[in-house]
Design a protein that fits this description.
The complex is a heterodimer.
Chain A lengths: L6 H8 L14 H6 L4 H24 L9 H23 L1 H7 L1 H4 L5 H11 L4 H31 L1 E4 L9 E4 L2 E4 L2 E5 L8 H56 L1
Antiparallel strand pairs in A: 1-2, 3-4
Helix pairs in contact in A: 1-8, 3-4, 3-7, 3-8, 4-5, 4-7, 8-9
Chain B lengths: L2 H15 L10 H6 L4 H33 L5 H23 L1 H7 L3 H4 L3 H12 L4 H31 L9 H16 L11
Helix pairs in contact in B: 1-8, 3-4, 3-7, 3-8, 4-5, 4-7, 7-8, 8-9
The chains are: A mainly alpha, B mainly alpha.
Chain lengths: ~250, ~200
Amino acid sequence: MSREKGYTKKNFLKGLIAENPLFVSILGTCPALATTKSIEAALGMGLLFTVVLICSNILVSLLRKLISEEIRTPAYIVIIATFVTMVKMMTNAFLPELYSTLGVFISLIVVNCIVLGRAEAYASKNNVFDSLIDALGMGIGYTVALLIMAFFREVLGSGMITFGTIFTFIPKFSIPILKCVKDGVVIYDYSIQMFQNPAGAFIVFGLILAVIAFVKNRKAELKAYQEKQEKLKKAEAARLAAAAKANETSGGDK
Amino acid sequence: MSIFISFILAILSSMLIDNVVLSRFYGICPFLGVSKKVKSSLGMGIAVVFVIVIATVICWPLYTYVLVPAGIAFMDTVAYILVIASLVQLVGLFIKKKSPALYESLGIYLPLITTNCAVLGVAQSNTDQGLTFLNALANGVGTSIGFLLIIVTFSCVRTRLESANTPKAFKGLPIALITAAIMAIAFMGLQGLFSGIKL
């Protein structure tokens, strides 16, 4: 099998930026809005999602020659649902706080379009190693996207970043940003509660998409402008050359 | 208070107060994807009502009378998704046979419902919370009608937004999401609607 150099790196990086599942393909929006109240919850969701995606991509890729075309989708759904159930039970056993925070959204990884989409579009056509890298890239891309949303929502909504409430194995501490509490006394509080509510989730997601569209538009406009300049330059050069030629011929006539 | 009135109140509360899209975040993908035209959003909404109500009627007894006695309650997610996937196929075949005209308008939305998290979300949360059958049914009916209500309203707003003069970066999804946020704020105002009524 011939493959271009650096394919693995490109395959991994595409999930992070160029084909980011949340911000570019707009897939898996339900958990992105529901579980991004705090950075810890978003990190937990992203990790569980990545584990399920890696496992399902590997298994689908291993079975890609066994599963026939007709029963493809039901087979993939059963594979994904099995891994989700395993992840759910593990979370319940080892991280009960995470389990109760995410609630039904752990089960809903089954119907997350990204997992089924990667199985269908990538793992069913590529070998195990490539599928693993693809899942890793997509999973980390999704986790980073969740973390970006959660960062804005937690900082604006609660005014501080708190660690240790869900991952109880690290000591509890919080970084004051917009709100400062010392010994139970509120010193200053500039937080906007609404960002913890559903409305805040929609606003943050909308604004992030707008910023991405803005950057993309600007890049496209810059490129169009440069192309136009190049064309003008070429036209100018051609005109000059033609004029010089005309001059020469007319000079020869004299 | 009679059972009937509490049933109606449960439907209304899961339809308006705990609206499926705007406060529980189920079914955002079709909410954003299929809401560009009023007609298609109506088709999607009605198909979702169909599937959610039937899925609730099947999944709750399946969990209570089959999975729990058999001692495999942890298999609930796998069982539900299989029920939903096959149900979507069956409903499609049934509508195709009985009413080809309805199938024409709903047909393309049916496969999309399998991956609509509202369906699995309702089935899963019904049994996770340990609701009675009547309450589970009320949750299913209320949730699905709430979804229909929201997706149709939102599509009406989006048709108007198409012709509005929005900044270039906000065109399309970003402004739609901001609109959804304003709708969510409006729905937050409905909280405490039934707090005066004793159940």
